[in-house]
Amino acid sequence: MIPLAAILSIGEKVLDKVLPDPEAKAKAQASLMEMAQRGELAQLEAQVKEMQSARDREVQIATSEFAPMLSKIVTPILALGTVGLTFILFGVIIFVDVDTDSKDILIYVLGALTSAVTMVLGYYFGSSAGSKEKSAQLDDIMEKKK
């Protein structure tokens, strides 16, 4: 996927060639920026809806009397296992004398597990303050559209 900044840069170069009039060029650039913002807003809105639907699904499974016990406990067990394994690997790297080749592999695995733990914590405890601020801004913008 082409980054948004690259698309805007290409669009501005095309506008320079096609529209020599500065006023028409400014209107076209404003239109281009508005299209970019709408795309970003739609993308943010889709991400927020996706996270919310995943959380709603988990709540439905956890509170359903018809869901099997395995369905209710598999997500928390995987989350706890990931966090626990990460701390165990931290301990191994710090306290156990491991040869250099194995240590490199352990550090690589620890990096992957650390990323997974970040996602687990974000899932269970909500997103960061920055994401919450973006969600609030998105809600404000959506309210203004209505």
Structural summary, described in words:
It is built from five helices and no strands. The chain is mainly α. α1 packs antiparallel against α2 (22-63) and α3 packs across α4 (100-125). It starts with a helix and ends with a helix. The relative contact order is 0.07. The mean pLDDT is 77.
What is the number of strand segments?
0
Output the radius of gyration: 24 Å
The computed structural class is: mainly alpha
Order of helices and strands: HHHHH
Give the N-to-C terminal Cα separation: 31 Å
**Tally the helices: what do you get?**
5
Helix content: over 70%
Brief characterization of the structure:
This protein is mainly α. It has 5 helices and no strands. The radius of gyration is 24 Å and the shape is flat.
Task: Spell out the blueprint of helices and strands.
Blueprint: H1 4-18, H2 22-63, H3 69-95, H4 100-125, H5 129-145
Helix pairs in contact: 1-2, 3-4
Provide keyphrases for this structure:
single chain; 146 residues; mainly alpha; 87% helix
